[in-house]
Write a structure and sequence with these properties.
Helix content: 25-40%
CATH class of the largest domain: Alpha Beta
Distance between the termini: 29 Å
Strand content: 15-25%
Shape: globular
Largest sheet: 6 strands, antiparallel
Order of helices and strands: EHHEHEHHHEEEHEEEEHHEHEEHH
Number of domains: 3
Number of strands: 13
Radius of gyration: 20 Å
CATH architecture of the largest domain: 2-Layer Sandwich
Length: 344
């Protein structure tokens, strides 16, 4: 890879996650909340770029002033929420487009569609992409399950990501537990709930990069070798963010094994189709379940997934020969090269 030209880069992030210049002396637990932000900022600086971390909470004016004063070549977007709401991140990207400011990651239309788990599943179902059966339970409505939606069901937030509100209790086996878990999501996450058919099988993650021409990364898998035999193998909030619990259950993400070449090609083709029908751009991770008989179901499409060094997306890219700095360089080029349909 040729040496990238020096750029002015504004890195957008939540104001509480602006990283320190050094993590020396900090524990792993202390670093976890801002690890992605630290990894991206430090690596971009090491690549020779002029890097400006920008904390954002609820004021778009902060972004406007940075664009006017710094005149960045690109905004590296690590924002996952605005005004405390995850679904508002698409509006921030819309603002960048209105400002004609190049940015990394997914476009606002793809973000909006992917954030709504029901909408994305309906679009995929229309295109005959396998997804679990599901039902949405809005706040304030009585929980009434259709007989066409069989147990077991996995109950989670309709719009929140990062396994928010998901635990072992999220998998329910009767109507009483369904109502109880839906009420829990309404009360604690403050969003509508979605209950989807629980697909028994392997937890696969597949990274995709591109705007028009797509690159699919090697299939990754999350395994829990020390998890209780009677516990469903789902990525709960505790599994994703509790380091001690991760060690207890032997959590590991690794290159998926024992998937024959034919099935790998099918999964690669499936992920490209999902990416295109949902209108994604930049980069995304497809969360799939692979049943024992070899059927792959889309569980969620995650635009702008975790970019921490050592996490599944970066690790999968490295397996393909793409080092971390090269990965960030590719995402920057995709951001600068992205054009709206019909845009000159």
């Amino acid at each position: 890879m040729s040496k990238p030209r020096k750029m002015r880069i504004v890195v957008l992030m939540h104001e509480d996650l602006v990283p320190p210049d050094s993590i020396e002396g900090l524990s792993e637990e202390q670093v976890v909340p801002f690890k992605t932000e630290f990894d991206v900022v430090v690596t971009l600086k090491e690549m020779g770029h002029e890097v400006h971390p920008l904390g954002v909470c609820d004021d778009l004016g902060v972004i406007r002033r940075a664009i006017e004063q710094i005149k960045p070549h690109v905004c590296f977007n690590l924002l996952e929420e605005f005004h405390g709401l995850g679904v508002y991140d698409s509006h921030v990207v819309s603002y960048l487009e209105l400002m004609k400011q190049p940015y990394t990651g997914c476009n606002p239309r793809g973000l909006m569609v992917a954030h709504n788990k029901a909408m994305s599943k309906m679009i995929c179902r229309y295109h005959r992409i396998p997804v679990p059966r599901f039902a949405v339970f809005p706040i304030g409505r009585k929980v009434k399950r259709s007989t066409k939606l069989p147990f077991p069901l996995l109950v989670k937030s309709l719009t929140e990501e990062g396994s928010v509100g998901i635990s072992q209790a999220s998998v329910v086996y009767d109507d009483a537990k369904l109502a109880e878990r839906v009420e829990f999501i309404h009360r604690t996450v403050n969003t509508d709930a979605i209950a989807e058919q629980y697909i028994e099988g392997r937890e696969l993650y597949v990274g995709v990069m591109g705007n028009d021409r797509l690159q699919v990364l090697p299939i990754w898998e999350m395994v829990f070798p020390k998890l209780r035999d009677d516990a469903p193998n789902i990525a709960t909030d505790k599994i994703k963010w509790d380091l001690k619990y991760q060690k207890k259950i032997g959590l590991d993400t690794r290159l998926a094994r024992d998937i024959d070449e034919g099935l790998q090609r099918q999964i690669t083709h499936l992920c490209k189709r999902i990416y295109r029908v949902l209108g994604l751009s930049g980069y995304a991770r497809m969360d799939l379940r692979l049943t024992p008989d070899g059927r792959a179901y889309l569980i969620e499409a995650n635009p702008n997934p975790n970019l921490s060094y050592g996490e599944d997306f970066a690790e999968s890219a490295e397996t393909e020969g793409i080092e971390y700095d090269q990965l960030l360089h590719k995402l920057i080029n995709l951001g600068i090269g992205y054009r709206l349909r019909g845009q000159a």
